Amino acid sequence: MKWGVIGTGNMGQVLIDAWLSSNVIEQDQLYITNRTIDKAYTIQQQYPNLHVCETAEQLVSQVDIIYICVKPLEIYPLLTKLRDQLSKDQCIVSITSPFSVERLESVVPCQVARMIPSITNRALAGITLVSFGEQITKEMKGYLLQSSRLYSTPEIIDNNVTRMASDMVSCGPAFFGYLAQHYIDTACKETDIDQELATQLTEKMFIGFGKLLEDGHYTLPELIDKVCVKGGVTGEGIKAMEVELGELFPHLIHATHTKYFEDITKIGAQLERKN
């Protein structure tokens, strides 16, 4: 099958790199386009055998599977422009959480799926969050799942947990990366450790931390218990975190969900205007 990507920003490029690194598809099976077309040609410099299309319409005429990697409020205008070209044998795949598969199916005459990636997919790891439309064939569903297993672990989710699951999988690396960077910066201000060493130690810790979980040595609670020796330094650090974290994570979840529902409302208004 031939694949297409409309939108070669951060996540579009992550997917392209993951697919070609894991041999999901060959370069000459991939067609890409972007509103700023120079970005697509820059990617072609790295993968010279993929195809750059000057327009989304040109791309759709060439491919079987179309990944939509644009901002949530850009999806509906894009799909309305493309829908007359789409056939029932093609499949639209959105990577954006607020645009549900039900709404995708209301706009286009083809098969649809939502597959939310993570930046961890670039390392051929992490999760892909998956939801399928009612019209997707068994064959297409199996093909998409099997393909995603080459660079991630696909997890089929219900719509009611989409935002929270996406917070954990897709936003999580940025959230915990932010906390780690803040920890490094504070350590450098409060002690004699320098930025380079603090960064190196923290990055290596994260790699080892992930390996412990991946290999099944410990669960998160077990890991905390093993490191947090009674009366020790780690225990005192945990006490400080218990006091200072306070409502951080409730506030974080509230903020992401508020933005999510704002986008859903705006998408709903776009769809209502078509009627």
Based on the model shown, name its key terms.
single chain, 275 residues, alpha/beta, Rossmann fold, ProC C-terminal domain-like fold, eight-stranded mixed β-sheet, globular
Task: Please give a quick description of this structure.
Helix content is 55%, strand content 12%.
Report on this model:
The protein contains eleven helices and eight strands. The protein is α/β, with parallel strands linked by helices and 275 residues long. It folds into two domains: 3-157, Rossmann fold, CATH 3.40.50.720; 165-252, Orthogonal Bundle (ProC C-terminal domain-like fold), CATH 1.10.3730. The protein has an eight-stranded mixed beta sheet with strand order 3-2-1-4-5-6-7-8, sandwiched between helices. Strand 5 (91-94), helix 5 (101-107) and strand 6 form a beta-alpha-beta unit. Helix 7 runs antiparallel to helix 8. The protein is globular, with a radius of gyration of 21 Å. The model has no long low-confidence stretch (mean pLDDT 95).
